[in-house]
Design goal:
This protein is mainly beta and 181 residues long. The chain has a single domain, classed as Lipocalin. The protein contains 2 helices and 8 strands, in the order αββαββββββ. It has an 8-stranded antiparallel barrel. A hairpin with a 2-residue loop joins β6 and β7.
Length: 181
Amino acid sequence: MTRTIRLMLLASVGLAPLQGSLGAQDNNCLPPSTRRTPVTSVDSLRGSTMLLAYGTAGPRKGRITSGTLDLWPAGEAMRRQGVVMVGATSIDLTRIGAQYTGSLRSRDPATPGVTLEAAGGGRPPTLTFGSVRLRDERGDITSAITRFDLVEKAIKGYRGYWRTLHGTGETASGYFCISRF
């Protein structure tokens, strides 16, 4: 049995209660603290981690979802665009009202389901979900995507805030936690 299959089995069996009535706080996933430890490196995100997201605004407010997040180093073309890692995820973002375009499970290096952009210009490192990113003539993204800003290094991983940036439906936002198994 491959590692990915074992991790998915763990997520579906061992973490099934997370998708029920339990709140994120019951699972040690809290919003970032006011005294944040800044994210100075994202190297520990390489490989497989558990992602837990909680919706605090939008059509699915109060819902929680979880899944695996697999990241690996980005290829040269992506690195030139500021992407340090690419990957895929099993999380069901629609449970919390998030929107995206394309596949979250895509492992195609040219159109990965997830990208991790480096921090810079006062921005924290950011995970962007969705394998399709349509842009207009100015280069602005015109398709629905969801971004997770890693704003705090926590004891067991990372915490931050997420938001859906574009789309034809209602917008949504919340917070998330990423931790090692």
